Amino acid sequence: MLSVRCKCCNKELTSAAKPQICGCPNQTTITQDKITAVDMTQVLLLNYEKNVKDTSILSKSDLEYQENRRKRQVRKLDFEIR
Asked: Is 54 a residue whose pLDDT tops 70?
């Protein structure tokens, strides 16, 4: 969740799916994680929380198994030819 304040009009904007606009001549706009304005020095960042989700399908044990498997080496077999 992202929150900013426009220093021109002192309006606080919070991120959402739809664009939030302050309406003053600076035109501070916030959409999800993007902030735009005519003069960015007039924008104050209040709150920034990055939501990171673990989208891994494999569990910890599966990842550990795959890592160990990756480190394996090929064994060379010697066959006796008659």
From this structure: no
CB contact burial 47-62 (16+ within 10 A = b; e otherwise): eeeeeeeeeeeeeeee
Residue 45 CA, chain-centre distance (Å), reads 17
Residues whose CB is less than 8 angstroms from the CB of residue 37 and which lie 6 or more positions away in sequence, other chains included: 6, 26, 27, 28, 29, 43
Distance between CA atoms of residues 11 and 22, nearest Å: 6
Task: Say whether pTM exceeds 0.85.
Answer: no
pLDDT surpassing 70 at residue 55? no
* Average pLDDT of the residues of the chain: 87
**Nearest of 32, 61, 63 to residue 49 by alpha carbon:** 32
Q: Tell me the two tokens of residue 67.
A: 């890592």
Q: Helix and strand tally (H, E) in the chain?
A: 1, 6
- Contact, 7 vs 25, CB < 8 A? no
